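Study this one:
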Amino acid sequence: MSGYDSNPFVDPVDINPFQDASITQATQGVEKIDEYNPFSSRTSHHSDTTIPISEQSSQPAVLQTSVEQSPKTTAAAAQADLIRKQEELEKKAADLEKREQEFQNRTNIGSTNTGTKVNNWPPLPNFFPVKPCFYQDFDQEIPDDYRRICKRMYYLWMFHSVTLFLNVLGCLAYFTAESDKAGVDFGLSILWFILFTPVSFICWYRPVYKAFRADSSFSFFFFFFVFFFQVAVYIIQSVGIPRWGNSGWISSISMIKQNLAVAVIMMVVAGFFTVNAVLAIILLKMVHGKYRRTGASFTKAQQEFSQGVMTNRSVQTVAAGAATSVAQGAFGRS
């Protein structure tokens, strides 16, 4: 009668099919699979880090479209290029013409109607029996880049000449105070003034002038060779070794106890010699810097020397005479 006592209006108990004993035993050996939630911020168990959206996204590839120029645009560009090249050529031609005109002016100025230059140095009056021996014009013969250093070398030579003259006066004062010892110094000082003034002009000033004027490698090498010894001479003169004809520091200091006035005069001359040595070293370095920019070399110096020797008329005459004498001797023996 139990079936009649149950309430028909009450919901029957839900029967779970998975609670069956046979099904429960079958599912106990299977691992529990996590539910997958696509909206969860957690990553799956296969990845430890979360990749930002900004890193995952990439810019779409853009295909560069090539724009074909029209025939009119191409022709205009070609015409503009031709105009630019023409302007460059005209500029170069004007530059070459300017240089040629400057060279022509350098050649014409200071020349006579026959085309030969008139010497203007040393500047002597017209009635003087001795005429100028050299032609010198910094503005016309020396390029702008070398004009300043070339003038400085000329001023150094003038200062050198003044120093040698003052050396004569210093040795004269030394001779008046020590007539028995300073006679040799006074005589040699006169000799140094007469000898070294023109020799220095010819041996190291004119070569550097020619080197800057004609960009001559041989003149540069000759100047460096001679001027190196000139610097050594300046140092010896400033030292003032006794009986060498120089009013240097040794001779002037030795006169302090004997005659203070003569010692002061000799010290002034020694200071002039010292300034000469310092200026010579500075200018030698400056000339060497200019020389390195000119592109001169020892090979060019050898070529210039060989060409100068072969084109020299005196050398050609001597060589022809020697060849003639050798030929005549050979024929005479035969």
Residues 32 and 185 are 122 Å apart (CA to CA). Residues 71-108 form the longest helix (38 residues). Residues 41-47, 53-57, 110-114 have pLDDT under 50 and may be disordered. The radius of gyration is 50 Å.
